[in-house]
């Protein structure tokens, strides 16, 4: 080795060869090696730091997602509560509309269940024509004619969203979207709502004679217009899945003087079991109601009115 020089000797079968490398070259190579090692260490540390940051970001994202789900769940429950209160306001408004009729009712305390059917209704005097006339005016039968299944009945049940007991004011029929809905009695379209109606969604209200009303909720399309008179069996709407609904169905209600009734006895009411409704729905003053309807039927059948109708 010579001063400031570095000699490398390589020997093989062909002989020996010597290579002289300046001392500075040796230092440059050493620096390059150290630089590569430094870059490797820096990259390793940087990647570790980046991975830790990514992990922290993922943890924060998971926490934010959990918070979002909690807030979204609370929002759904609050929305359901708001819609439930809106439904209650709708009921209250209907009761206010019928307040005069309610105030005018008799305050008799006698329990109608103590009266026999014959005492309440003189069935022997009711003709077939009068029965048909009654059933033309008072809601009866199921408002849909295709196959259906009853998914919820009238009365108390556990709310599917709020998970608490509440009053279900109607009966639900599970049917496909677009199933025709027919009027169960003569009446007039009192409300046809295509906008937001709380949990009811798109809805129709029919006002019938003698304080009866029927509600049809979660509709897809309304056929009748507000103020339009409808006949029993007339197409009024098509079922849907609007409003607060867990699936396609028709929500059907019957109310009398602002009070919701169990629709089932009315949907089962036919000419064959004509007297059944008087026993199953004893809260209605059937005697005075049928007396009035029969008088109207007799007036309608008078020769003078019949001749005028023919003209």
Please provide a written account of the structure.
By secondary structure, the protein is α+β, with helices and mostly antiparallel strands. It has 2 domains: 5-64; 98-310, Glucose Permease (Domain IIA). It contains 8 helices and 14 strands. A hairpin with a 4-residue loop joins strand 9 (202-207) and strand 10. Helix 4 (128-137) packs across helix 7.
Walk me through the topology.
Blueprint: E1 5-12, E2 15-22, H1 23-97, H2 99-103, H3 117-120, H4 128-137, E3 149-152, E4 155-158, E5 165-168, E6 171-174, E7 180-182, E8 187-193, E9 202-207, E10 212-222, E11 229-230, E12 235-239, E13 250-256, E14 259-261, H5 263-267, H6 276-280, H7 286-300, H8 303-310
Antiparallel strand pairs: 1-2, 3-6, 4-5, 6-13, 7-12, 8-9, 8-11, 9-10, 10-12, 10-13, 13-14
Helix pairs in contact: 4-7
Organism: Helicobacter ibis
Domain M23ase beta-sheet core: 167-263
Protein name: M23 family metallopeptidase
């Amino acid at each position: 080795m010579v001063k400031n020089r570095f000699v490398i000797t390589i020997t093989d079968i062909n002989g020996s060869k010597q290579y002289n490398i300046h001392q500075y070259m040796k230092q440059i190579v050493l620096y390059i090696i150290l630089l590569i090692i430094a870059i490797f260490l820096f990259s390793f540390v940087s990647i570790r730091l980046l991975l830790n940051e990514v992990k922290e970001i993922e943890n924060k994202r998971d926490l934010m997602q959990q918070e979002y789900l909690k807030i979204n769940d609370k929002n759904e429950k609050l929305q359901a509560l708001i819609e439930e209160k809106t439904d209650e306001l709708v009921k209250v408004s209907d009761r206010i509309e019928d307040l005069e009729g309610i105030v005018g009712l008799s305050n008799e305390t006698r329990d109608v269940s103590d009266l026999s059917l014959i005492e309440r209704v003189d069935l022997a005097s009711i003709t077939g024509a009068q029965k048909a006339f009654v059933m033309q005016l008072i809601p009866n039968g199921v408002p849909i004619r295709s196959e259906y299944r009853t998914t919820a009945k009238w009365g108390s049940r556990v709310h599917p969203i709020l998970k608490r007991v509440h009053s279900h004011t109607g009966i639900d029929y599970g049917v496909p979207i677009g199933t025709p809905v027919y009027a169960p009695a003569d009446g007039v379209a009192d409300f046809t709502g295509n906008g937001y109606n709380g949990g009811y969604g798109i809805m129709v209200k029919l006002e019938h004679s003698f304080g009866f009303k029927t509600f049809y909720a979660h509709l897809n399309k309304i056929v009748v217009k507000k103020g339009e008179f409808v006949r029993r069996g007339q197409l009024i709407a098509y079922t849907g899945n609007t409003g607060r609904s867990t699936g396609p169905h028709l929500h059907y209600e019957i109310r009398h003087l602002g009070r919701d009734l169990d629709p089932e006895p009315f949907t089962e009411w036919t000419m064959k079991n004509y007297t059944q409704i008087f026993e199953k729905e004893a809260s209605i003053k059937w005697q005075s109601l049928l007396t009035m309807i029969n008088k109207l039927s007799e007036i309608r059948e008078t020769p003078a009115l019949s001749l005028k109708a023919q003209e």
